[in-house]
Amino acid sequence: MKQETKIRLFSALVVAPFVVACFISYQSLIGLVSAIVFLSSSELYFSTLIKYKKMGIVVIYIGIVSAFPILFGLWFLNFSMELFSVFYIIGISLTLMLVKSKDVIMEYFGIFSISMIYISFNLSFFIPIYKYFGVALALLTLTLSWAYDSFAYFFGLSFGKHKLSKVYSPNKSYEGLFGGIFGTFIYVLVYFYIINNFFDYNISYWYAVPFSIITGIFDTLGDLFESAIKRAYGVKHIGKFLPGHGGMLDRIDGLLFVAPVIYIFLRFFS
């Protein structure tokens, strides 16, 4: 086993149990989401905006995007769009007041928008999934991306020949995509068998098909989006929080696209 693989495995074994343990209560989940938003947005800002040396606005940005999941989950769950609009307008307004250069203002707008929408808002969908559909489906949503990434990596490494995106992620292949979907489908079936037979759930096994397809498509798109950001700024990883994995954002990039779509699916079909 390569040294890098050993480091990745050790890091995952340390972090994964802690993350899963945070699903024990609604409040701890909110804290987890806010903490991950804090780390991911910090990585994004320090990879992109740090060169302008305006620490004040970076700190404000981090505060805004990290506070959103807390207020959203504890007090404003039924007013998600209203709360988001207020936070977003505040961030844009502060940017206009604090950034005085027309040459970089659009970059500040863009990075704040990415952190507010792509990271904070999208990850916060875990909160209504947990609140309205239960801990089992919230935990499944998290582990769907873990399962897909693992199977896609294995199938891509073993059989990958046809490139999925030569520009933004040349290591990804269609073989990895379809292999990842197949592996995720098997994983979901096993997961449903366990929670239906050993816990108080009765989830239809047919959900395994849309869950695995949604994960395969949107996990890949989320990963490609983050890869496009890294290519644009010439960095290999956005952050170094997780040894062997890069940064926190590198670990949740696909999940940020998967969680909202899973929630929408559950709203219409559960």
From TrEMBL:
Top EC class of this enzyme: transferase
TM region(s), chain numbering: 7-26, 57-77, 83-99, 108-127, 133-155, 176-199, 205-225, 246-266
Any GO BP: CDP-diacylglycerol biosynthetic process
A GO-annotated cellular component: plasma membrane
Entry's localization field: Cell membrane
Catalytic activity: a 1,2-diacyl-sn-glycero-3-phosphate + CTP + H(+) = a CDP-1,2-diacyl-sn-glycerol + diphosphate
Domain of life: Bacteria
Membrane topology according to the record: Multi-pass membrane protein
Name of the protein described by the UniProt record: Phosphatidate cytidylyltransferase
Organism (species): Thermosipho melanesiensis (strain DSM 12029 / CIP 104789 / BI429)
